[in-house]
Amino acid sequence: MVMLVVPATKGIPMHRLLLSMTAVLVALPSGVPVAAAAEPVPGARSLGDRLFPALGNGGYDAQDYDVSVTYQEGVETMPASVTMRATATQALSEFSLDSVGQRIHAVTVDGRAAGFLQENEKLVVTPPQAIRDRRSFTVRVDYTADRARNPTPPGAHLPPGVEWPLKAWVDTPDGFALMGQPDRAHLFFPSNDHPSDKAGFTFRITAPADRTAVANGTPIAKDTRDGVTTSVYRTVHPIPADVVQLAVGRFREVDQTGPGGLPVRSHLALARSTAPRSPTRWNARPAKPRASSPGWRGRSAARSRSSDTASSVSPAATTASRSRRRPSPPSAPGFRSRPSRKRRRWCTS
Q1: DSSP per residue over 160-202, as a string?
Q2: Which is deepest, 145, 190, 208, 223, by most CB within 10 Å?
Q3: 239 DSSP 8-state letter
Q4: CA pair distance 75, 247, nearest whole angstrom
Q5: CB-count exposure of residue 146 (10 Å: 0-12, 13-18, 19+)
Q6: Which residues contact 169 (CB under 8 A, 6 or more apart)?
Q7: What is residue 12's DSSP assignment?
Q8: Under 8 Å between Cβ of 139 and 128
Q9: Beta strands in the chain (DSSP E)
Q10: What SS3 class is residue 258?
Q11: Is the separation of the CB atoms in 181 and 194 below 8 Å?
């Protein structure tokens, strides 16, 4: 090592001498190794979430997404594409995106064709060359989204005969709606679908001109040609993929003002959903039979207006139906309850 010694100069402060120096050359002896770059390795296919262990991907940080989709009336499949700009957090030989229910047609990384593989709910991408650590890159996926696909999320353990009750795709008479929570946004577009990786979003939705397309963000453009309209929305702040919402249909727009003058815009559907209700209800319990005994008449009988039942309703039952709180039915003949505030008594013959 060569050291540069600066002698003290009378009258000149040392800090000025140091500032006046433009460079200090240090010679290293030959043979000293220079730290080599990290070897590229595949990115993790999970972020280790306790509730959703299969969700998320490691090795990069998504910066923004640009999603394009085309809706055609009466067709459940939609041509689409997504472009994700990300920054590598390690040297990558391959990386993955959350993706399910889509037919992938092509994948490019920085404009060059890349290898890809669909495995479970992952789209595994092999770039044409390794991506260096801290380097920004862009991946584009051309695919077809299928609204008929609503698979059960991995890790959901349901009893036999019980269907997954949450549907991300909801078809309506004049369009559709998508709700990505808690982990179904990657049904719509390949992404790093974990709340910890927020990003900016741009949505470009093409639909018939007589329909309205809405999505997260602020509307920034609308272009109508040949009977179809492309609407563009863009978020101001980064959001997680799972809160993405998108809908196409006929809506009534309602503008309101929220707390602190916050503008709130809502779109109310003019048509009702055609999606069938789930045949299985959570925590459903069989109805308990009503207790019966001589002289007891239930509330439903007292409310009946038909001539064949009105004559069978006793005055006591009619009085009970008018009270706000129905007392417990008598359990046996001869039962008498304690007097109420209105001095009513339940009695049976």
Answers
A1: TTPPP---SEEEETTEEEEE-TTTTGGGTS-B---TTS-BEEE
A2: 190
A3: B
A4: 15
A5: middle
A6: 147, 148, 149, 150, 176, 177, 178, 187
A7: S
A8: no
A9: 41-42, 60-70, 77-88, 92-98, 102-109, 112-113, 115-119, 122-126, 136-146, 169-172, 175-179, 200-208, 212-215, 218-225, 228-234, 245-249, 251-257, 263-269
A10: coil
A11: no
Spatial distance between the Cα atoms of 324 and 268, rounded to a whole number of angstroms:
36
How are strands ordered across the β-sheet holding 245-249? Answer: 169-172, 175-179, 245-249, 212-215
Tell me the pTM: 0.68
Q: Which amino acid is at 45?
A: R
Structure tokens at 200: 């900016």
Q: Do 249 and 211 contact (CB within 8 A), yes or no?
A: yes
- Residues 57, 193: contact at Cβ < 8 Å? no
Amino acid at 150: N
Tokens 């009085």 locate to: 319
Q: Is 197 exposed, middle or buried (0-12, 13-18, 19+ CB in 10 A)?
A: buried
* Tens-digit pLDDT string for the chain (349 aa): 444 444 544 555 555 544 444 443 444 455 545 556 789 999 999 999 988 889 999 999 999 999 999 999 999 999 999 999 999 999 999 999 999 999 999 999 999 999 999 998 999 999 999 999 999 999 999 999 999 988 877 777 778 888 777 788 999 999 999 988 888 899 999 999 999 999 999 999 999 999 999 999 999 999 999 999 999 999 999 999 999 999 999 999 999 999 999 888 898 888 765 555 544 444 444 445 544 444 444 444 434 333 343 333 334 444 444 444 455 555 445 545 455 454 445 444 4
Distance CA 19, CA 210 (A): 70
What the block records as the tokens of 203 is 């949505």
Asked if 278 contacts 170 with a C-beta cutoff of 8 angstroms, the reply is no
Nearest in space to 190 (alpha carbons), one of 76, 75, 70, 96: 96
CA–CA distance, 139 with 155 (Å, rounded to integer)? 28
> Which residue has tokens 């269907």?
163
